[in-house]
Amino acid sequence: MQRFEYFTDDDVQKIHEATLRVLETVGVDFGYEPAVEVFKKAGCKVDGERVFLSPKMVMEQVAKAPSQYTLQARNPEKNVAIGGDNIAYIPCYGPPFVHDLDRGRRESTLEDYTNFVKLSYASKSIDITGGMMAEPNDIPHERRNAEMMAASMRYSDKPFMGGAIGAEAARETIEMAAILFGCSEAALAAKMPMISILCTRTPLAYDDRMLGAIMAYARAGMPQLISSLSIAGATSPVTMEGTLVVQNAEVLAGIVLTQLIREGTPVVFSGSSSAAAMRYGTLSIGAPEMAVNTAATAQMARYYGIPSRGGGAITDSKLPDAQAGMESMMSQLMATLSGVHFVLHSAGILEGYMAASYEKFVIDDEICGMCKRIRRGEKADPEKLALEVIAQVGPGGEYLTNMHTFQNFRKEFYTPLMEQKEAYAGWKEKGGESIEKVANRKWKEILEAYQEPGMPDEALGELEKYIEKKYGK
Amino acid sequence: MTTQDIFNAVLAFDEATVIAKTQAELDGGTDIGAILNDGLISAMDEVGERFSAGELFVPEMLMAAQAMKAGLKILKPHLSAGQSKSKGVVVIGTVKGDLHDIGKNLVSMMMEGAGFEVVDLGVDVESEKFVKTAAENSADVIALSALLTTTMPSMESTVKAVKEAGMATRTIIGGAPVTQAFADQIGADGYSADAPGAVKLVKQLVA
Q1: Are residues B71 and B104 in the same domain?
Q2: A425-447: per-residue pLDDT in tens?
Q3: Cα distance from B11 to chain A (closest Cα, Å)?
Q4: Residue B128 is part of which domain span?
Q5: What chain B residue is nearest to A281 in terms of C-alpha separation?
Q6: Counting Cβ atoms within 10 Å, is residue B151 exposed (0-12), middle (13-18) or buried (19+)?
Q7: Is A419 contained in some domain?
Q8: Which end of chain A, N or C, is less surrounded by CB atoms within 10 Å?
């Protein structure tokens, strides 16, 4: 498959040059003394918490970040390569609410989190279990990270996402991962079983908690997404180009920090900027401008030779409805076509990241399957061109009974999870259900059929002990 | 009506013309109350209506508010005590531990535009600071903002601190993860999902 390029090479170059100018003359605020010290020591111009980066420093450090690496799962068959010609889908991240058709919208719990881990594990299209797919509001704040990590480790065998709120959550995630793999923290750096998302405080700033976590993960050599979510017209210029410059400057400044701390720290160049909903002054993620930013983020990351993150099956809709469907497919497909490597929020998001929907998780899983089919690409070789078959059937014939069809249709065509392709009468007879209704049944079936992937009793026991020692029973 | 030009200039988001026309009316001896009410305030009422009707967007509303404030600044030294009285005093800030302020700033600007006196404490604000500032300014309302679920508990402690101080000041809360249910749970006097709603809410609370 040819990659989609939104901007011309000339435009990419101009955005890059504007970014370097911003980093050198406007600067970025790092609200965490230890981070400012790192820049000072490296010889950067610093004014209070504002750090100015020379073009030379930026390009030298950014060049040290690897262009490809592999996250090792506890089941090696589920290792995930980040970068190169690979694409990984990762479910929703961060919502404090959940939604399902039976119970409506409510505050999410640890049970919801665990259910999403299970749905993620069961999905053929989701590559990484995810993290904070729904906030466990029913347990104390200090305990949340450890419980989510334990659930991700136990109920799925795919790579997972680590905690991000402060150095303490990062340390805890690293310690628990070392227990899971029964190895030292130093050995963990070679395995990289998880990846975490750390965010800028746009425009052009980082706060103490994110910097604490960025630095802790970088010291441990753990991969991280350095992520900017600028809101065009609110936290960055209203133009796509201006927003890209702000996003680019933030992300590059964060990547420079990671490389100064530990050369070769694996990172993902992560952009999720979108437009402001000007009727309300709030963020809109189901916007075509988001799709533009996604394609451009992939291009900018390619320019720097770093894996990229962008897009996702995301929507502003409050329900898993037609709006949710169109916005989600727009963004997921754009990420897939433009060469994004890490597609966070590939399943479940509603309400501009505020809610995770069970039904939408399954519908998005279908979107993911379709997008991966498109991404797989074709090859115009003799077998695929099927000249012999065309000659054999000739004008006016049929292909349904042809051996070529019989041998190839399963691998050529995507098989939907929720088949709704029959004629009206058949559909009506089966209950005449909308896709949301089918999805409602589907997620329950998946959870019903779920079986825990085997895990060494010892690791499980050690993880439980770790949590109990730290937070009590 | 000579104040019509001022009214029109606010609706055209034209700050320079608002300033020029307000000065001209003032110099020409037009009644100050008329300039204020028929020119500036009624223009903002109209802006509010057009905003609610979906004809205007947030950046336009804020630009109109800025133009209105520029006119008000010229009138201020000439206003009588009764005329210069604001609709109420609002102390606003993002709670302890939270550094997000776009939503808070938007609410702040829209409240000013609606004629409230706003004391903006910025981000990462301690409970005691809200209480102290509200007492010093005889505030009618304390407005609390949070974007992170991890900082929502700071809203609860601030609301508690206001109650413990025995103040009559009402508390309202807002921010993406915040809900009416949470407001009820922590005993806040109000919640709004967005900035225009917050202005309406404060108007109701001080009425």
Answers
A1: no
A2: 999 998 999 999 999 999 999 99
A3: 17
A4: 89-206
A5: B58
A6: buried
A7: no
A8: C
The partner residues of A232 in beta bridges, in order of sequence, read: A236, A275
Residues A276, B153: C-beta atoms closer than 8 Å: no
A407 and A315 fall within a common domain: no
Of A354, A376, A398, which marks where a domain is finished? Answer: A376
Q: What angle do CA A156, A157, A159 make, to 5 degrees?
A: 100
Nearest to B54 among A235, A279, A354 (CB): A279
Tell me, what CATH number does A366's domain have? 3.20.20.480
HSE, side-chain direction, 13 A CA sphere, residue B49: 7
Whether residues B199 and B120 share a domain: the answer is yes
Q: Which ranges in B78-143 belong to alpha helices (H)?
A: 81-84, 102-113, 127-136
Question: Which residue stretches of B125-174 are H helix?
Answer: 127-136, 152-164
Domain for residue A104, yes or no? yes
| Range A321-332 average pLDDT | 98
pLDDT tens, residue by residue, A239-252:
999 999 999 999 99
A436 backbone dihedrals φ, ψ, rounded to 5°? -65, -40
> Which of A139, A282, A283, A350 to probe the B interface (max B CBs under 10 A)?
A282
Tokens 């990229």 locate to A308
Instruction: Looking at the structure, tell me whether residues B117 and B136 fall in a common domain.
Output: yes
Q: Burial code of A150-186, b = ≥16 C-beta within 10 A, e = fewer?
A: bbbbbbbbbbbbbbbbbbebbbbbbbbbbbbbeeeee
**Residue of A319, A245, A242, A229 whose CA lies nearest to A283:** A229
pLDDT given at position B189 = 96
Distances (CA, A) of A35 to A42, A189, A266, B183: 11, 21, 18, 37
* Residues of chain B contacting A, Cβ within 8 Å: 54, 57-59, 99-100, 102-103, 106, 149-150, 153, 176-177, 194-196
Q: How far is it, in rounded angstroms, from Cα B101 to Cα B145? A: 8
Measured between CB atoms, which of B57, B194, B195 is closest to A278? B57
Instruction: List, as ranges, residues 212-231 from A with C-beta within 8 Å of B.
Output: 231
User: Tens of pLDDT along A378-396?
Assistant: 999 999 999 999 999 999 9
A354: Cα within 13 Å, side-chain hemisphere: 20
From chain B, pick out residues whose CB is under 8 angstroms from the CB of A138. none
Q: At a CB cut-off of 8 Å and minimum separation 6, what does A454 contact? A: none
Residues 278-317 of chain A with CB under 8 A from chain B are 278-282
The CA dihedral of A113, A114, A118, A121, to the nearest 10 degrees, is 70
Domain count across chain A? 2
Which chain B residue has its CA at the smallest distance from A276's CA?
A: B58
This model of the complex carries an ipTM of 0.82
Question: From CA B78, how far away is CA B80, in angstroms rounded?
Answer: 7
Say if residue A203 is preceded by a cis peptide, omega within 30 of 0.
yes
- Torsion, Cα A42 A44 A49 A52, to 10 degrees, reads -140
Looking at the fold, whether B125 and B150 belong to one and the same domain comes out as: yes
Give pTM, 2 decimals.
0.92
Name A283's bridge partners. A276
Q: In whole angstroms, how far apart are CA A456 and each of A79, A301, A470?
A: 18, 39, 22
